[in-house]
């Protein structure tokens, strides 16, 4: 790469918090966890998060000329495809499934990030009604304090992209008459997700949960 004056570069249009803000948010979060710990039961604690998955590899690095000030990762048209959306009604149903109504013990806790749908007043009321304490990871520090961001998603998405790339290179991928790719069926995507999650090593999951101080 040096011969052609190129190097591995990161995309430049990402918004990044400075170190002081990250440290301050992390310190407040850890202080909150210490106060919460005596009141929760780890056996009834759920670490939950949604993560975006694209039909093309959405990594943040690419080859570009050394010294270039603006680095762009090109898309083949699959990156903008969407098949899911998370709404508050869906989250409320999910809470009922994650925390069975027949479990009446104390100490239930839900840990998730500060996505707008998570912190709505109606969601707080739902948690209060079900006696589920809600622990919100502050924005901008998920990669450091949320189990998924620490290590689980990297392994999971690497496995998932293997299935996506196999699909793109096969005769199962369909295109419109204008040459634009068609989305795979929801059933197909669900099968990919299921296989990738089953193949994610338990040791990776446990290391990430432990790093998030929930073991």
From TrEMBL:
The keyword Transmembrane helix applies. It comes from the Eukaryota. The chain crosses the membrane at residues 132-153. Keywords: Membrane, Transmembrane, Transmembrane helix. This is DDE-1 domain-containing protein. It comes from Phytophthora cactorum. The lineage of its organism: Eukaryota, Sar, Stramenopiles, Oomycota, Peronosporomycetes.
